[in-house]
Design brief:
The protein is mostly helical. The chain has one domain. The protein has two helices and no strands. The longest helix has 65 residues, at 3-67. It starts with a helix and ends with a helix.
Length: 97
Amino acid sequence: MTEEEKKLLSTFEARLRHLIYLHDELKHENAALKQLLNEKKEEIAKVQANYMILEANYTNLKTATTISVSGSDVRETKLRLSKLVREVDKCIALLNE
């Protein structure tokens, strides 16, 4: 092997080692990003579940407030109760299918 070929081989080996190093670094970064993504997905799922609970609580509070209102809001209370009865009827119809 000539001196020129040895120099080219040495350069090639150095570049190959550098590429392997970069590849390993990217693998580690990719793994860290995947873990972060999974953590964020779990966090989003928890926030969505909490939102659904809060939304249900808000709806229940609205219903309770509407039902317990004084005589001046009787019309609104009747409408709300009618809506609730329709929702229950729809649920019963779905269960009967």
